[in-house]
């Protein structure tokens, strides 16, 4: 992978890390406020997809 490609990959990883934080926060909010179980499932699924994408990119993202 050349330098230009690596820069784009790192940018994507940073964006996905932010998305992971937001999806996690939404999930916690929905659970804490006893929201609809379908909404909680959707947030959980979104979080899982972001984590899978990070894994495919080889990102080393610590668990919180």
UniProtKB/TrEMBL annotation:
Entry superkingdom: Bacteria
Name of the protein in question: Uncharacterized protein
